[in-house]
Amino acid sequence: MILITGGAGFIGANFLLDWLTQSDEEVINLDVLSYAGNLENLVSLNDDKRHIFAQGDICDSTLTARLLTKYQPRAIINFAAESHVDRSIQDPEEFIQTNIVGTFRLLETTRAYWSTLENKAKQNFRFIHISTDEVYGSLASEDEAFDEDHRYEPNSPYSASKAASDHLIRAYYHTYGLPVLTTNCSNNYGPYQFPEKLIPLIIVNALAGKLLPVYGDGQQIRDWLYVKDHCAAIRLVLEAGTPGETYNIGGRNEKPNIDIVHTVCALLDTLYPRADDKRYQQQITFVTDRPGHDRRYAINSKKIERELGWKPIETFETGIHKTVRWYLDNQIWVRNVQSGTYRKWIDKNHKERAL
């Protein structure tokens, strides 16, 4: 049995669904069900006894300890995080609480549990911490991609909070010997992503006839990783990764944001044409850039490729086609996750940035 945190969120839900298609090993899913945590992501598991859901916060050490004692998992995978940069600018305290305090309390509870395990179980136990390439800061166009030895230079409250959590993970390995591993991934995209991130936001706004907001000049470059390729990498890290190590996971797809928007618009033109036969690209609008917006991220994945044999399966072309198709086929899901609170936040955010 394994325990995952944040298993009702975007990456966590995809990992859980993929895990249970490939394994009969049970999963305890601890999720607080914040705005981005949605059990509708896991509706296909409603009658699956291998999925044990527990609603709760990783800051709640009593609950976590109770779950560990009851279920005795062989591993923990920590997906739980506040992860949207814009939200961290408007409300950084939530990010400090979840990403730093939550990770600390989860580590402390895990250390106490791990210390009670018998020799073999203790030796085989693993704690996987899911982090981000944003902890490394921003790259110039001529810079080499981030490798695992790149210095940390976070530029937003979000990335700073994740950097702090990464440092805690490292400290618990070197100080206590807790068998932890960290993965730093590039921008994920795919099914079940909450529609405030770039790709689902563009799809959802396009279908609703709304403007498609692009920050600044749209030339911010990101490395795009299809979420199911990310999940496959995490499974390999759990199976064969070396405790104490960090593994960077990237999609080999560096693209400017404006190119992503144009690609999505072109796919929608083909798969779901506008009733008036106009092109979705006409809905693009440039808005004021956000403060401290990193210019470029790029991930060097050679370590995980060399040591664990992982490579992404999806090209950006195949992955984005699958993603757009999924959102077109699941418009009821989109409507259901767009609560009044979400609409109020996203409208306020982009209204304030309109040029």
In short:
The chain is 45% helix and 15% strand. The chain is an alpha/beta fold and 355 residues long. The strands form three sheets. Strands 3-2-1-4-5-6-10 form a seven-stranded parallel sheet, sandwiched between helices. It has a three-stranded mixed sheet with strand order 7-9-11.
User: At CATH's second level, what is the architecture of the domain at 2-189 and 225-251 and 297-313?
Assistant: 3-Layer(aba) Sandwich
Q: What's the CATH H-level superfamily name of the domain at 2-189 and 225-251 and 297-313?
A: NAD(P)-binding Rossmann-like Domain
CATH topology of the domain at 2-189 and 225-251 and 297-313: Rossmann fold
Low-confidence stretches: none
Largest sheet, order of strands side by side? Answer: 3-2-1-4-5-6-10
DSSP E strands, number: 12
Q: For the residues shown, what is the average pLDDT?
A: 94
Residues in β-strands, percent: 15-25%
**Major pleated sheet:** 7 strands, parallel
Q: SSE string, helix = H, strand = E?
A: EHEEHEHHHEHEEHEEHEEHEHHHH
Helix content: 40-55%
Furnish the topology, listing elements before pairings.
Elements: E1 2-5, H1 10-22, E2 27-31, E3 51-55, H2 61-71, E4 75-78, H3 85-90, H4 92-114, H5 119-124, E5 126-132, H6 157-176, E6 180-185, E7 187-189, H7 198-207, E8 212-215, E9 221-226, H8 227-240, E10 246-249, E11 254-256, H9 257-271, E12 284-287, H10 302-308, H11 316-329, H12 331-337, H13 340-353
Parallel strand pairs: 1-2, 1-4, 2-3, 4-5, 5-6, 6-10, 7-9, 8-12
Antiparallel strand pairs: 9-11
Helix pairs in contact: 1-8, 2-4, 4-6, 7-9, 9-11
